């Protein structure tokens, strides 16, 4: 979408201003030059597709897996391995099942850094994600929020931006087609045991792009 | 240099009661005969200290009366002494609502007498404690100047002399007999009294006054004993109006926590739990124990943790008194890491876990511990987050990322990608396992299913 800087003299100029002020219109010219840290995803192909050439701190990424077990966690393993060697927690809020320690260790993740939180309800879950981001003691926060709404995602994005942490969310699949404040939205489906199909529904700073398939075994350890 | 600072807290007992500043409140003697301390609102009604209680009630029938509890009054002074302990190493509590602080050795640290006094004044202001102070070369001189509220900020001998000469005698808390004797002689200021020969004063007026006059220029130690802070923290707040909601407890608690933090700072200690005692009008009292996953000593953190914990509680009845006590402490862990230590040895921050556990419950926060057992169910453990986890070696292989808490019965799969992987183990305990694990592709999911030795199929995890 090109920048809409020219103000037309017609009566439409006011609503447009309003829309700009509310941040409803994305303007390429106002792209924030990011100084936040970027970590390689471990997959060359995915790096090419990610706006900054890797996962970027301070940007919430929404992940919409087609179903459980379609490789959505697999693509995060290399970045989690890198992050787990920092002296900070990796927080998992309401994980859908038990993270299987041997698999994580095999991927190079230091499981001692994983902090699992099992909130009772939606309110607690959102609080945990925000608290984890704001505390400054987490390198990454992952949240499975089946009952989230666009407003809570916006809050989380603000917290994430302020704290410059990594954050991945698994929101309600119904929101997949509605607007969201998250800069990155990724859809994952599995094609075969080694192949997953990825598609960015939204990428801040780039066009959404087409689906591409990723070989799940092609990860290189980023160290 | 010899220098003493005397802090006088006027109406300390009255100000320690949590009350509404617009309502008239008085403190009366233990035998409930006379008025001792009077709030500003009560003063407007015409109530004066030393008035009989009956007259006070006549002047203002709706006045709130508190009986002076001597034990609590002493405790209050101890609290103030504890607070003052961060400003001076030598503190001598004076039973009459005051503290002597040795100031001479503190001047260099605070950068001069003015800075020292201002720091103390700011501290008092934060707590909203009315304060009168006096600075003198001897303890008695400091005390008298404080009582007369002469704010001399100089240790110059001439200026000190001048300040003492002009002190009005009726403000020095002398007893009635002494004052009367002095009045008969027509003496109103300390300067006039000092001109008389000391021995005559002792004989004609009062030997105690003579002693004090001697101490005014001579003695260098206050007449009370040195304050040593106890290694047990217990302080309380009495409410003048009952607190009916837990929010009403928060501000008094913040004050207690501030005091606790001063205590912790001085001793270089930290706490893992706080005991709160809430008194109601009817006997069974409420006791809350706020425990934390990790040791804490910072005010902001403790405040936040208490806020979360308070949010979870509900009051059984209105509260009349709140007490905070801590009897177990741990010394602070030294946070400096050794130059040679690797990243692995520096501990992870515990304050996040503290906060999570304060808001949720301890069982909702956990860390993973791998045990090295080959059986999937036994290969991991959820440890409470406050316990340290050791790293154990893991078996290589192709493992699923998600494990279901319980295996779920599953129809025999069609599209087997990989397998079998036989896991036979557990002969040493009663829970023997013999299973063949397969990777199965179904509906775009890669599943981890197994067949047990009775040929039943179960789903046990997802490759995600």
UniProtKB/TrEMBL annotation, chain A:
Gene3D superfamilies: P-loop containing nucleotide triphosphate hydrolases. The keyword Membrane does not apply. It comes from the Bacteria. The keyword Nucleotide-binding does not apply. SUPFAM superfamilies: P-loop containing nucleoside triphosphate hydrolases. Pfam families: SulA. GO terms for biological process: cell division; negative regulation of cell division; SOS response. Keywords: Cell cycle, Cell division. NCBIfam families: ImuA_translesion. This is Cell division inhibitor SulA/protein ImuA. It comes from Thalassolituus maritimus.
UniProtKB/TrEMBL annotation, chain B:
Transmembrane segments: none annotated. It comes from Thalassolituus maritimus. InterPro entries: DNA/RNA_pol_sf, Rev_trsase/Diguanyl_cyclase, SulA_CellDiv_inhibitor, UmuC. This is Protein ImuB. One of its GO terms (biological process) is DNA repair. The keyword Ribosomal protein does not apply. The keyword DNA damage applies. Residues 23-143 form the UmuC domain. Keywords: DNA damage. It comes from the Bacteria. The lineage of its organism: Bacteria, Pseudomonadati, Pseudomonadota, Gammaproteobacteria, Oceanospirillales. Residues 367-392 are annotated as: Disordered. Belongs to the DNA polymerase type-Y family. Signal peptide: none annotated.
